[in-house]
Every structure is written in C-alpha cells, then in structure tokens.
Amino acid sequence: MKNRILSFIILAAGMVTSCNTDAEFSEFIPTHALSTLVKSATATCGSETVVGTVDNATHEIQFVFVNNSNFSDVAVTLEYATRAIRKEGAPEEGQKLNLSAPYSFVMNNLEEDFTYTIAVHGPAARHGRRLSTDQGGRSQPLLRRQAHVEEGRLRRSGL
Known about the structure:
By secondary structure, the protein is an alpha+beta fold. Helix content is 22%, strand content 36%. It contains three helices and eleven strands; from the N terminus they run αβββββββββαββα. The strands form three sheets. Strands 3-4-9-8-6 form a five-stranded mixed beta sheet. The longest helix has 17 residues, at 2-18.
C-alpha cells in the first residue's frame, strides 16, 4: 500500500514539473504535394453520359462517346481533391464546355501548377480507329493499320 501511495505522489510531482508554460507553440502545419488532383470525371453530351479516364501522371482527361460526334456543348463534372487549388479555366460542376478542340485548365498541388487537358473522342475510337488531329484542330479518324505505320515512322525518326 505504501508503494502505491509513493508511486502516485512521484507521478503527480512529475506531471506538475514537466509542464512548461513558457514554451512556444508552433503553428506550422506540414503539407505534402498532392499526386491526385482530379479524382473522377463525367461528361454529358445530349442524352449520353460517359465516365472519363483521368490520368494524373500525364494530366490528361479522356472521354469516349458512342452516339455523339458534335462536342460543342458538353457538360463536364470533375471531382477534385479536397486540398487541390483550382486555377485558370478549371471547370465548375456541370459547366458546359466546347470540346470540339482539346480544352486546357490549370490546377495546383500545393507546390506547383499543372496544366490538365480534356479531350473527347467520338464513335470512330470505338470501332478500332484512332483519332488524329489535323492542323486545323479537327479530329480525323485513322485506320488502325495507318496508325501503326505512323507510330513506326515516328519511332524510327526518334520522336
């Protein structure tokens, strides 16, 4: 019994003397850069709604529509990371965008700015074709064989 009382007294004395009321409190909150700025993406064109592919490594968002080919009025909804900072051109929820040409906007991950690009593909991409952009910014379908020939040419030229 004496040991318990003595232990309690030593513990209480240690707690009272260990408090330093003059110690400075640091208000610094450590932060780390975000790697996922855009969590998910959906787009609605006419009556068709599709889920997009978000690649945070290359900062690209891709939508593939099956039944639409006019992308001048597409409602885009992006889910952003909570701490991500939206900058120039970042779409609000359900904002209508002209995606006839790739659309770019800027996000910040608490350390640096990144430019994200939204691109849309139509029915040609679904049927074994790839889309290529001509000099006017218009999408042109390429047959799979033509795309492979063009990729091989680019690889050989070092691009």
